[in-house]
C-alpha cells in the first residue's frame, strides 16, 4: 500500500506518542530535523466540470463526507487537494484524509494514505465568506472564488417595451451601474438587422424584480456593435456600425457622451466628443476611477481584427485625446473586459479566424491612467466571446462571463468567474452552468450584501414576449489542503474523506456541493466511526474538488510543507506539522504575503500506566487472568511489558486499567501492542461506568493476533449515554491455555485524534511599497 515517506530522524514534540522507537543511531541528531514534503502548486489532474447550481451543506460532527475520484491515466502521485469550505463563527477544525477504495467505499480499516488537519484559525484567516471586499489580509483570490448558485427563477414578464418608435433593440450595447441597466443602440426590433438609435434604462427594484424599461434620449444616429462604458455621471458610447453589415461605408469613429443620474437612471442629451483614432466595431470599453475611458480589440472597416488599446481622459462629460497603450498580446473581437481595483482584465474574444479564445490578460493601471505591461492570467475553462457585451460583467472583486458564445454558432450556458484583488487575479476560474436565453440576453448583477449578487438575466425578445429570470452568484472559499502521496495507480478509485471537529457550538464549517455531477463520481456521507454503508448526498451532487499532482512544472513557488507522522500506530492521525504560504504581493507570485503554521499533537493517554515500566499498578486481572511485569518480550525499546497469564479454565481472561473520566457520546481510541505466545483472538476493549461508578456496558471488537509477533490492535469507540468513567480492558477472547500468554505494551485510551490539540499560527507579512522591506504581524 502506498504510504507517505517516514520521518528520517528521531521525532520530538509529539506528546502522548508512546510508540516512538528509541534507536541508538538517532542519538546526536538535531531535534526537529524531520523529513517533510515541500509542495508546489502542481498541475491540476482532476478538476470539476461545470455543475448546474452550487449549494452549501453542513454535516456537523457526526457524519463524514466522501468525494471519490479516479486517478487519471499517467498519474501516480498527488500533492494537494482544493476543497470548498464555508466557515461560520469560530469555524471548526477540518480533517481531510485520502483512502484507498473497497467495493466503492473508502477503505477506512486500512488507514489513511495521508491525512491533514486544517485548524479553524487558518480556515477563518484564509476565507472570505462574505466576499473579498470584507475579508482579512490573508484571504486572497487563490483561496476565494464565486459560483452561480440556487439555479434560476421562473420567467417573469418584462412588462413594457420601449426604446424609441420601434421598441427595444436586439443586441444592444449594455452597461450596469448602481441598480440600473443601460441599453444603447443595437438592431432595430422591427427592421431586420437595421441599426437602432434606441436608448433604454431599466432598474432593479429588489433582488428579484425589474422595473419596466424607460426610453431615454436617442443616439445622434443609428449604431450597432459599438461599445458602452459609464462613470458615476457620464455614459460613453464609442464606434460601431451604422449599416447592417460591416464595411467601408459603415464604420463609425464617434465618441458620444451623455450625462446621467445613477439615482433616477435618467440620461441626458448626447453630445459628440473627441473621435476614436479609427473606425472600430465589436470592441470592448471600460472606465477607471471616473477619470479615464479605454477601448480594446475590435475590428476595423476592412474586418481586420485588432489588438490595439486606447485611453482618453474624461471629466464632466468631456473626453480628451485618445492615447495608444500597449497592445493586447492577441487580436480579438468581443472580449470580456473589466476594471477591478487597479487592474484591467481582458478575457476571451474571437480571433481573425473566428476561433473563440480562452486566453486571459491583465495589466496594472497607473495613477495617470496609463497601463503597465500585459501579463497572462489563467485561461478560461471554456472559450468565450461576449455577444455585444451583453454577457459579461464585473463585481468589486470578480470578472464574470454569463453565457456568451463558445464558438461562432453556439451560445453557451456556462458561468465562468475569475476573482481579483489588489494583488491580482486568482490562479483559477470557476465554472458552473445556468440555463440562459441565448444571444439576445443581457445580464446584470446587483449586490444583495454579504458578498452575494443577484443576477438578472433579461431577454428583450423583440417581436415576442420579453422576460427576465434571476439567480445568485455567491462567494466560495476554496482552501488548498496538502495530501502528498506517491505510488498510486492510474485508473484506480481513491477517496477524499472530510470531517469537521468543533471545539464549541460557536462555530462550524459547511462544505460545497455542485449539482450535475461535476466530478464523474457522486459525493456520499456516512455516520462517523461506524461500519454502515455510505449514502448519496443527492442525485448528481459532487464536491467541486480539484486534485493536483506534486510536480514543480506549474510553478516554482512553495505552497505548503507537510510532515508525515513517523509511526504507523495511528494511521488516521493527521500530519503533525504543516505550513501554508500565501504569496502574490502586487501580482508577484514569488513574494510572501503571509504564513500559516500548524502543529498537531497526539492527545495524552487517559490512563496513568500505559507502558508497565514502573510496574503493573493500577492494572488488575479478571476472569482468571493475572498481570505481571516482564522483560521477556518488549516493544519499542521499552525495558518492560505487562504479561497477561490466563488460568487455562476461565473464558475471556482480561486485565483492566483504573477508571478515568470521560464524557458521554464522545469518540475514544483504545490502542496498544500485543504479543501472543501461540496466537490469539484479542480485543482492546473498554468498560463504561456512570457517575456513581456503576457498570454500564463494554465496547469491544476482536482481531486475530499471530503467534510470536508484536501486533498493533486498536478500536475507536463511542462512549454511551450517561458515561462518566471508563477503563481499558485488553481481553484474550475464548478459553486459552495457561501457556498461551500475552505480552502488552503501550496500552492507552485517548480522545480520538480527530480532536487532537492544535498549535496554530497565522502571520501577515507587511511591505513598504517604496523599499519592499517587510515586517510580520501575528494575526492570531
Automatic annotation (TrEMBL):
InterPro entries for this protein: Galactose-bd-like_sf, Kelch-typ_b-propeller
Name of this chain's protein: Uncharacterized protein
Gene3D superfamilies noted in UniProt: Galactose-binding domain-like, Kelch-type beta propeller
Species assigned in the record: Actinacidiphila rubida
SUPFAM superfamilies associated with the record: Galactose-binding domain-like (SSF49785), Kelch motif (SSF117281)
Superkingdom per UniProt: Bacteria
